[in-house]
# Entry
Amino acid sequence: MPTFHSARLLGDLQRDVNNLLAAADRYLAPQPHDILLQQPAPGSWSAIQCLEHLNGYGRYYLPAIDESFRKFLAQNRPVPENFRSGWLGNYFTQSMMPKADGGLKMKMQSPKNHRPSPTLDAAQIMEEFQAQQEWMLSLLQAAKRVDIGGIRIPTTLSKLVALKAGDTFRFLIAHAQRHMLQAIRSVENVRGGDAAAVTLQYLSEPVR
# Structure
């Protein structure tokens, strides 16, 4: 399994989250709410449904990570310089991460309890998404003072299935990249644009 310099990995993940925020601000925030809420085809998610799907996971994982970090910091334990990914965490991350052309390495069906309703409050969902990503950035900063390989976070699959904190970050951010591209494609389809042109580059463009 890959081994990372912890501070460098966390810095890269902070950059990825900032890019997600920039993409939401660039491609989604300027759109009328009716565009963001419109499904591009029957059974396909609207842009807001994509964000609400991410928010649903954030409501579980962000408090769980926060609590685990607080417990670690209260114990004054040593912090290793490097992080070694776990087999399962690395598999989840690689399976979720979009390819350079924006395509998916593996198609997955979302659990029923994480399939968002088509009737949503666009402004509220956008606001929560931004707040969650800001919280993620603060947790990534705090992670530089904890053992992201020793701390384990139970998954939404089961409390018996836990990932290393470092892998939890990697998985969540790859998941967010996957669905941010889906949200941008949804807008392009609704507006009659070129959804096929939406690649991973959309999440790494410099802020204008």
Summary: Helices lie at 6-28, 33-37, 47-75, 87-96, 122-142, 165-190.
